[in-house]
TrEMBL record:
Residues 1-20 form the signal peptide. This is SsuA/THI5-like domain-containing protein. It holds the Pfam family NMT1_2. PANTHER family: ALIPHATIC SULFONATES-BINDING PROTEIN-RELATED, TAURINE-BINDING PERIPLASMIC PROTEIN. Keywords: Signal. Belongs to the bacterial solute-binding protein SsuA/TauA family. The keyword Signal applies. GO terms for cellular component: periplasmic space. It comes from the Bacteria.
Length: 330
């Protein structure tokens, strides 16, 4: 290389570095808190791994806050700009007369994410087979428990009289409790349900998601003040999620599993793929970010049936569909 070329390269290098720095600074940081880490949220991880957020000029900082209460606390205290959590939490906060309520602006999952797992193989299962059994359910007051009881009642089963219902085991210990011999049936999320089946400890026999109907089960929400102050970021965030929702419908399950594998280091690629298939086949992944009114009303019916609805909240009060409508019309 000639001296002249070397000199030109040295002169251009600082410019290139400054340009790269400027591009990095242009990314808008968004603090995102997710209620748990789950393959149930596959489109979110796709939006990160496939660069859809970056394409929209966003640098998403993802934190797992483990639980609805802690996730909502993070959002309300400005520890997060956006929260991925069950839509019912926004109703609980609203009922406490919050001055700056969390608003649901984009939907990620539209069904319950739990499955009914039996200890023994069951041929030609009927829901009435549960009567008289010991049923290991989810924590009282949580959305999985509310959906579980709602589905049982839809099949003429009184959860508190027709079953020996166990609800005093922490969420993190339900799988191990069943594996160690507690209960004839258990209500479980993935991948725990599939892992028990792989180990021969349990058998997936039904889906609470298909039985309960469409609900805004897991949604993105932000405080009203944040939406008012930065609607452009809300629009970009929603667009990135919509890109991911479309992407998972266009790609095969193995490609999706490879995309989200870095988020599940302790889970094999084969299990990730199978769990994605299970959720995808039952329609758990919302095809668009739109939170529709029918699902919102169904959510409140389930909460009311469980005795957990503090007050009925109109759809327009806690749902902002402006960004979803805009993006889907593009």
């Amino acid at each position: 290389m000639s001296r002249l070329k070397k000199l030109l390269l040295l002169l251009c290098l600082p410019v290139a570095i400054l340009t790269a720095c400027d591009q990095e600074e242009e990314l808008r940081e968004v603090k995102l808190a997710e209620v748990t880490r789950s393959i149930f949220y596959a489109p979110q991880y796709v939006a990160i791994s496939e660069g859809f957020f970056e394409e929209e000029g966003l640098d998403v900082e993802l934190t797992t806050t483990w639980g609805g209460d802690t996730t909502m606390t993070a959002l309300l205290s400005d520890g997060a700009d956006v929260a991925l959590v069950g839509a019912e939490t926004s109703i609980y906060v609203y009922a406490q007369e919050a001055n700056d309520p969390p608003i649901n602006f984009a939907q990620l999952t539209r069904t319950d994410g739990t499955f009914l797992v039996s200890r023994e193989p069951v041929e030609d299962f009927e829901w009435e087979d549960l009567k008289g059994s010991t049923f290991l359910g989810q924590r009282k007051g949580g959305m999985p428990q509310m959906v579980g009881e709602y589905v049982l009642k839809q099949h003429d089963i009184d959860p508190h009289n027709d079953l020996e219902l166990i609800q005093n085991i922490d969420f993190a210990n339900i799988t191990s409790a069943f594996a160690s011999g507690t209960g004839d049936y258990v209500q479980l999320f993935e991948p725990q349900a599939t892992l028990l089946q792989e180990e021969g400890v349990g058998h997936i026999i039904e889906s609470f998601g298909t039985e309960s109907g469409e609900v805004p089960y897991t949604v993105y929400m932000a405080k009203q003040s944040f939406i008012d102050e930065d609607p452009e970021t809300m629009e970009k965030f929603t667009r990135a999620i919509y890109k991911a929702q479309q992407w998972i419908n266009e790609e095969d399950p193995s490609t999706v599993a490879e995309s989200i594998e870095p988020f599940f280091e302790d889970t094999s690629l084969e299990i990730i793929e199978q769990v994605f298939i299970n959720y995808n086949e039952q329609g758990s992944y919302a095809p668009s970010p739109l939170v529709n009114e029918e699902g919102w009303n169904n959510l409140q019916s389930i909460m009311d049936e469980a005795g957990e609805l503090p007050e009925e909240v109109p759809y327009d009060e806690l749902v902002n569909r402006e960004f979803a409508d805009q993006i889907m019309s593009e």
